[in-house]
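Before going further, learn to read the protein records used in this course. A complete example follows; check for yourself that the lines match position by position.
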Amino acid sequence: MAHIGIDARLTAYRTGGISTYTRRLVEALAVRSLPHRVSVLHSRKARERVGTPLRAITLWTPPHHRLERLALSVELLPRRLDLLHSTDFIPPLKGAKRHIITVHDLTFWHYPQYLTADSRRYYNGQIRQAVAQADHILSVSHATKADLVDILNAPPDKISVVWHGVDPAYRRLAPEETAARLAALGLPSCYLLHVGTWEPRKNLVGLARAYRTLQAQQRDLPPLLLVGRVGWHYDALRADIDVLGLGNALLWRDDIGDNDLPYVYNGALVAVTASFYEGFGMPALEAMACGVPVAVSARSSLPEVVGEVGITFDPDDSDSIAAALAQATNDSAWRARATADGIARAQAFKWEDCARQTFAAYERLL
């Protein structure tokens, strides 16, 4: 019986994104009958353990520390791991006999200006070595795999594409149930929706400009609701948006918890992702699962996730975004098709499948 370690330290420091992926993957593995011993590596700062009843190992090395690769190697040495899965790109120098990494995106390569200096050093300075060192790579989309091959010269047969899943909580809800919860949250009954971190990569300035264009054409246009958290370079981004003068038509909410997010999706007229780059695009998938029409950038992984269901646009062209939003808000026939087709499309994304394919990659290496 081999000993497998899965690095879940980041879940103690961040929510969403890679932390959500790690949490859902471990939870899906925990309910499977596994032929090997699996240990989940937690930070000493973790307030909860993910993946119970899998064995938990507490570590002191924090993620994204400048000496992380060396310190984690030393800390893992006595654990005698046969395989280590680094869910956040960068593996230790020597944490196990075999290493598998998940690469979520190469945003930091395409748009280094949108990251902090520390983040650029952490990812850009180590990604080539991480890709070369890994015995196998899991990519969350075909778009990210193409980047790994084209930019970092990774061998295609060294990479497996394993899509994210969507939580069953994201589903079509009864209108009266949704209306009651939105009222309790102090939200209007209808709005355009963006879900994601408030940072330049999400192209919120372009989205706000497109909304202003559409607002001039449609006097009864519902507000634009931005649900997320403050991210990199937020102050400059917010200043650029404030000068557009949208006022109360733009609703910023950083207090929407995971339990309320399905209600917020259900209340949306359309969910839009205007990002310049996404490794996967989870909000678009969650919106489709809730039966909400989606409009997304025609770039990176987003067309891959929405398939033929969503409207796509050029994220560099605010008029293109506005035209997509106009169709999404006014074309009732398209909206009806997008609702049904989106729910069907979302059923192809399951965390159980993600766990099964991931464990199959483990076994191939072992």
